[in-house]
Every structure is written in C-alpha cells, then in structure tokens.
Amino acid sequence: MERLNSKLYVENCYIMMENERLRKEAERLNQENQQLLLQIKQKSSETEKNPDGSNNDNKGSSSSSASGQN
C-alpha cells in the first residue's frame, strides 16, 4: 500500500509540473494573441482612415509645403 502511495505521489508531482508548464505556455500564447489582435486593430484603424489603401504621408507633406509657398 505504501509503495502504491509513493508511486501515486510521484505521478502527481509530474502532473503538477506539466500543469505548470502548460499554464505558462498558455499565458505566453495569450500575450502573443493580444499583441496580434492589437496589430490587427491598428491596421484596421489605419485602413478606415485611408480606405483606398494609399499612403497619405507624401500627400500630407506636399500639401504642407504647398501651403508654405503661399
């Protein structure tokens, strides 16, 4: 009986270690998913501001330089 208890104790320790490893991996994956979701939201927000998909950086700088010439 004591031998069975020892065996079950060791098995339980391995299960707890594996559980901790999986918990840490799940936490890491959750953080990665949150970062990816944030990137998607940022790109979506940029697309909504600029629906034609062109880059407004050049347009903005040329219009500001044109306004400086007046």
Question: How are the secondary structure elements laid out?
Answer:
Elements: H1 2-49, H2 57-69
Shape: rod-shaped
Helix content: over 70%
What is the total tally of β strands? 0
SS summary, helix count: 2
User: What distance separates the N and C termini?
Assistant: 95 Å
- The averaged pLDDT comes out at 84
Class by alpha and beta content: mainly alpha
Characterise this structure.
Residues 33-42, 53-70 have a biased composition (Low complexity). Residues 33-70 are annotated as: Disordered. This protein has 70 residues and is an all-alpha fold. It has a domain at 1-48. The chain is built from 2 helices and no strands. It has helices at 2-49, 57-69. Mean pLDDT is 84; it is low at 61-67.
Question: Summary?
Answer:
With 70 residues, the chain is mostly helical.
Which key terms come to mind for this protein?
single chain; 70 residues; mainly alpha; 2 helices; ZPR
